[in-house]
Amino acid sequence: MVASRAIGSLSRFTGSRTLRCPGYICRTFTGSSALLTRTHVNYGVKGDVAVVRINSPNSKVNTLNKELQSEFTEVMNEIWASDQIRSAILISSKPGCFIAGADINMLAACKTDQELMQISQEGQRLFEKLEKSTKPIVAAISGSCLGGGLELAISCQYRIATKDKKTVLGFPEVLLGILPGAGGTQKLPKMVGVPAAFDMMLTGRNIRVDRAKKMGLVDQLVEPLGPGLKPPEERTIEYLEEVAVTFAKGLADKKISPKRDKGLVEKLTSYAMGIPFVRQQIYKKVEEKVRKQTKGLYPAPLKIIDVVKTGIEQGSDAGYLAESQKFGELAMTKESKALIGLYHGQVLCKKNKFGAPQKEVKHLAILGAGLMGAGIAQVSVDKGLKTILKDATLAGLGRGQQQVFKGLNDKVKKKALTSFERDSIFSNLTGQLDYQGFEKADMVIEAVFEDLSLKHRVLKEVEAVIPDHCVFASNTSALPINEIAAVSKRPEKVIGMHYFSPVDKMQLLEIITTEKTSRDTTASAVAVGLKQGKVIIVVKDGPGFYTTRCLAPMMSEVIRILQEGVDPKKLDSLTTSFGFPVGATTLVDEVGVDVAKHVAEDLGKAFGERFEGGSLELLRQMVSKGFLGRKSGKGFYIYQEGMKTKNLNSDMDSILASLKIPPKPDVSSDEDIQYRLVTRFVNEAVMCLQEGVLATPAEGDIGAVFGLGFPPCLGGPFRFVDLYGAQKIVDRLRKYEAAYGKQFTPCQLLVDHANSPNKKFYYQ
Amino acid sequence: MTSILTYTFKNLPSTSKWALRFSVRPLSCSSQLRAAPAAQTKSKKTLAKPNVKNVVVVDGVRIPFLLSGTLYKDLMPHDLARAALLGLLHRTSVPKDVVDYIIFGTVIQEVKTSNVAREAALGAGFSDKTPAHTVTMACISANQAMTTGVGLIASGQYDVVVAGGVELMSDVPIRHSRKMRKMMLDLNKAKTLGQRLSLISKFRLNFLSPELPAVAEFSTNETMGHSADRLAAAFAISRPEQDEYALRSHSLAKKAQDEGLLSDVIPFKVPGKDTVTKDNGIRPSSLEQMAKLKPAFIKPYGTVTAANSSFLTDGASAVLIMAEEKALAMGYKPKAYLRDFVYVSQDPKDQLLLGPAYATPKVLEKAGLTMNDVDAFEFHEAFSGQILANFKAMDSDWFAQNYMGRKAKVGLPPLEKFNTWGGSLSLGHPFGATGCRLVMAAANRLRKEGGQYALVAACAAGGQVCHSRSTGASGKSFSLKQSKLIQECLI
User: How far is CA B469 from CA B29, B44, B327, B442, B460, in A?
Assistant: First the structure.
């Protein structure tokens, strides 16, 4: 389940949906009385400096939507026209957000690429006017400054940013399958150099301010202030404004130069970039790398390279035109729609729809200091939860404690934490072998070995020591929660919390409720998960819940395909080229062959024929030989420390040979193999929705992408059905059904969607 | 941050009926303290506590505080501490064998003399039977030395304690890097030539890069000047306000020096150099001159500059503390009672230097006094901006309600009673030694100006403060001091 690491970066978005409310009148007026009709942008004048304040009503964030843009244009025109004003600063009145980017809904509402191109060109024109302004403009940035917000900021003559963790700069467009369409692709390379610009635009990564300062993306930093005569956040913004005003004055008086001294390395780089041959090499290198990583499945990165290249090689007019054209094209692609859908789903799964729990969880206890238990502990202590980590043996406990420490220490090495913060965070963890302190626990998460009788034993032991309000959560990937809860004295307090390994990297948390689980227990579990930084789906109890249940039939198909003689490496490349971040064979090794066997047996019993396909015997033989996958060093592949390329495990040949079955030629083309895997996955996912295991398609998509690595460019199984067409999927299933039988029988809901093309899982 | 309240009894002839009345009271002053008639208008209660011994400051001295890198630069810390001890012996004529215990505060430790109190005491000719220890608590180390002494006396362990502090910023321990140290230690243990060679072969040039003593807070990695600049900004204190306050400090210090008020300063013959008789950091300048300086920490737009910060200083100080009855029995006329003290601490990031604001009301409440009762305030001036931020915090209802858990603001100390003989900005701030200077300045001011209570306060790294308070001998003075920490002591 390493799968979705690649798109982990999606999580870095801050929610940025704007609620618009037409009748609203803005309350933050500081400036002149003539501006009382504006709701998003207004300004006041301090001496000869205009202070432009951005504050979208009814929203936590500012987004560049049509209203904001038009008001901003009006304001700037007034400023340029005024004789009294010699310079201006732009600042947001919202703590934690400068401008979070363009309004995604505005883009989604466009029907043609012409419309989108027009939006892009409007942005380009506005920002070009800023860039060419004779009155210096200073962007005073506090909080997220992303996408269009950053394009706005880099169009100003000077940038000052608050040096706090909330203030980040970046171009996340690529993660939504589009490109910075308001001049960003043209201005950024000039500002930070081509290599750094490519890095920012192609990865979409957020840049912390200290790094931004070094890169030349911002010119000055302002430290956040502590308590004074006002709340610190308020005073910090005020201070930022004061500093920005002095700089604006200095720029207008020509006492400060907007030009930055470049370091030696920078000078050398920009010299080298002046040589056409070097530039060509860089384009080539970057393109190769992108092609390798995206397998050609994501059009946006290549277009970004193309647009940057056009701007540099053919001049900025051609560059701007290319930018707006490609922006329009990209926003209309299926990939972009899929990625934007995921983004919306993610925003949804970051909310607690069960409300606030009656009692906030402050003390957490975790049973079992294995990979999972320690991982859960790590993501809890760094959010300030007092956490007990209990294990049965000192050696096991020590290993777990070390894992938590290492996780934190790695952050110190990356300078995300100071060593002092690490120590103080690590103090939130208590390692122990007994149940001392459990009487104060608000929630216990057990992560002991997947064995029902063991889980029953710990449940009984724990219930004897915990207070009445304490929630008991079981971290299991396949054991039904109601079976675990069967021995509980208070089944309403029992819930499933299925984490994915490695816990500190995987964003998904699958919460499983039984019929007896109370709403407050669920609210409590979701609250803890959100605190731990997870994206959460809440599903109903049943064998394999949602994620494991979808994966199982696909895994069964993987085994059948291998039995049919397809080379494991080939199967891996077929799956990764379809968009899975990890190849199917490798995935079995990563999950663990014993776990896979366990799950396959359990779910096989529960669902019968539909989960058949590959022979379980293959897994049994592998387990008996000790080929458990990565953890034992051998599975389908051989794993060695420090080895980058992995070799096939030659001992598998005899096992595969002994279980070989003849392939069926009409369903064994490369494409068929890919679709056999994907359609079984999708069919099972839709069945989960049909049976009510899933509450919404969005949760299904988020679970599949973030937990199982379903190709993000397809947007998840449900989005895939919508975009690819239910009919085509049913046709494929019927074809495979003819060859293999019931395992491929499409479920009723899918058939319904195929029969009425207007039926969609998503209507936007 | 800490604050010590020193309660000095003035025994000037200029005391009033108050003193007369007071001498009748059982605790505070005895008939030996000259009760004198004078213009004392206020009459205040004593702060003596039943069943607790009264602790007095007999007297205190300091060697001149010098800019680091000047005349003391070739000395070691214990040389300065020894000079202060010898000066104290001379000033008070206390027999060495009467001293029960010696405590010194210091911040940047010279590793060779890590118990600098003991080294200085032995060198000064104290008996080798007199125990001594060294304490460290950043800029309130000397306050901690004094309050430790108060505790020892009040609890009846000892009667006579010498407390002091020393800092030599002209020389600081610069270490080899950890890698180099490790290799050197391993080399020591290596037995064969082969082992040694293999260790040496691991040597890399970067092992030689030295480790400087941290100027930044360990927990936050922020230097104090940087923190002070942010603090000034948080309270919206302008550069001119800060420069103006610094100028006041220098002017007042200059005046006090010229008028000979800094009577705690003793001359010090520096070996091989001239005799130093006065502090050399007092340099009244003009606001125009000061405005020309560039910000020292937050560049280029900060407000804290070299001119409105305290400078790196070398110096040492010492005070003689006794149980009251012992002092009287020995025929001393003590300068002050040390009454209550409080140490407080806050967030080391954003409230590093705000201790005095927190500690002042606490120590006053503990003593049952109000701001109006205090006749002399001696606050440690780390930075102009820090003092002014503390003023603003003490004058703000919002701050009191949101951060101090109080209903209303503490109130401002009146400037005419505040650091009227200069402060750390002008006199200098040898970290470990400032606390004793504050207490002696408070006591001497009460005696000179006629007052009963003084309050001493200082802020310290780590976010702690000490506050202390003293009253004068025939009934007048009281000082409260607070050093650079977040705890408070009211002596």
Answer: 16, 14, 19, 9, 18
* Residue among B279, B63, B280 at smallest CA distance from B164: B63
**CB under 8 Å, gap of 24 or more: what pairs does B398-404 form?**
B398/A229, B398/A230, B399/A227, B399/A228, B399/A229, B399/B357, B402/A227, B402/A231, B403/A227, B403/B351, B404/B357, B404/B358, B404/B361
Q: Is residue A210 classed as helix, strand or coil in its secondary structure?
A: helix
Structure tokens belonging to residue B125: 């000719």
Alpha-carbon gap, residue B221 to B227, rounded angstroms: 10
Residues A689 and A697: beta-carbon distance below 8 Å = yes
Considering the entire predicted model, what is its pTM?
0.88
pLDDT digits over A662-672, tens only?
999 999 999 99
B398 → closest Cβ in A229, A239, A246: A229
Instruction: Give tens-digit pLDDT for B404-458.
Output: 999 999 999 999 999 999 999 999 999 999 999 999 999 999 989 888 899 999 9
CA dihedral sign, ordered A687, A691, A697, A701: negative
Q: A522: number of CA atoms within 13 Å, CB side? A: 21
A231: chain B residues, CB-CB within 8 Å: 402
Give the strand pairing for A471-474 and A494-499. Answer: parallel
Of B236, B298, B393, Cβ closest to residue A223: B298
Give all strands of the β-sheet with A144-146 in edge-to-edge order: A97-99, A144-146, A168-170, A207-208
Q: Copy the structure tokens of residue A451.
A: 């064995």
Max CA-CA distance within chain B?
A: 86
B330, burial (CB in 10 Å: exposed 0-12, middle 13-18, buried 19+): middle
How far from the centroid of its chain's Cα atoms is residue A260's Cα? 35
Distances (CA, A) of A318 to A126, A305, A311, A325, B432: 18, 14, 6, 10, 68
Q: How far apart are CA B25 and CA B22, in angstroms?
A: 5
Contacts of A418 in chain B (CB under 8 A): 220-221
List the catalytic residue out of B29, B436, B459, B466.
Answer: B459
Please give the backbone phi and psi of residue A261, each rounded to the nearest 5 degrees, phi first: -75, 125
pLDDT at A36: 52
Radius of gyration of chain A (CA): 28
How far apart CA B453 and CA B153 sit, in angstroms, is 21
Residue B29 is a catalytic residue: no
